[in-house]
């Protein structure tokens, strides 16, 4: 297996705050990697850094290529797709049109990507991406007609429609009910099994522990644990740091049980 994403010494500072502090994180081809940690741990900032939205020090490699100095649209063209913690959709476009505009690549961007190296694979049909998340029946709906959960799923479908090398999902299950969350989990697992390397941020421990191949835990910008779900959920530092105290330990245990319980979301 080869690393699709590899960071070394990745750091982001906001004034005196070390939002991301010397993070080493690798996602191998086809892996589903969970990135968890308490509020303010630096998860979103990590994704902002690798996708080019904040300045960082250290190194970010996609398929072995150093992305230093590349702006977000070039990184996107090379195959880095992301969703945002709050899903923005174009309210005057239908669901399908929202995916189509994201999958389209203006020629100037293609040219830039060719100049810097390999092209991303051609976009899968936006309709296929909707189908993958069972959203086909909503293709012609307007965003205003969607539930919060459906809006989140459309955001995920939009990122998938770009057929990325690395799919970064920032709390895709926030706002989903338990059934929707479990369903999303199954579909993310299928998408990873079909070869899409995925980085999943979520506070839903049940979701993350159930579907991820590996989990990386951040606290105050630093990696405090990394490994398979079984190992990470038994890590005392994780239980203490992530949720704090005995109640938290219980939540992590619950989440690890066969039928996952939601551990709550921020
Ligand atoms: N643009 C910014 N300017 C200054 N500080 C910031 C900025 N963005 C994030 N931070 C700080 O960086 C730290 C990491 O924040 P970040 O949003 O990455 O955490 P998070 O793990 O995504 O949290 P959450 O689970 O609440 O989404 C926090 O201390 C936050 O206040
Ligand atoms: Mg965040």
Strand order of the largest sheet: 6-7-8-3-9-10
In the CATH scheme, the class of the domain at 3-89 and 164-256 would be Alpha Beta
CATH architecture of the domain at 3-89 and 164-256: 3-Layer(aba) Sandwich
Helix segment count?
11
The CATH homologous superfamily name of the domain at 3-89 and 164-256 equals: P-loop containing nucleotide triphosphate hydrolases
Number of strands: 10
- Rg calculated over all Cα atoms: 18 Å
- CATH topology value of the domain at 3-89 and 164-256: Rossmann fold
- Average pLDDT value? 86
Unreliable segments of 5+ consecutive residues: 106-115, 117-123, 258-266
- Net shape: globular
Residues in β-strands, percent: 15-25%
Describe the structure.
This protein has a six-stranded mixed sheet, with helices on both faces. Strands 2-1-4-5 form a four-stranded antiparallel sheet, with helices on one face. The protein is 39% helix and 23% strand. It has a domain of 180 residues: P-loop containing nucleotide triphosphate hydrolases (Rossmann fold), CATH 3.40.50. Strand 4 and strand 5 form a beta hairpin. It is globular, with a radius of gyration of 18 Å. The longest helix has 16 residues. With 266 residues, the protein is α/β, with parallel strands linked by helices. Helix 3 crosses helix 5 and helix 8 packs across helix 11. The C terminus is likely disordered. The chain has eleven helices and ten strands. Bound molecules: adenosine-5'-triphosphate and magnesium ion. Adenosine-5'-triphosphate binds next to strand 2 and helix 1.
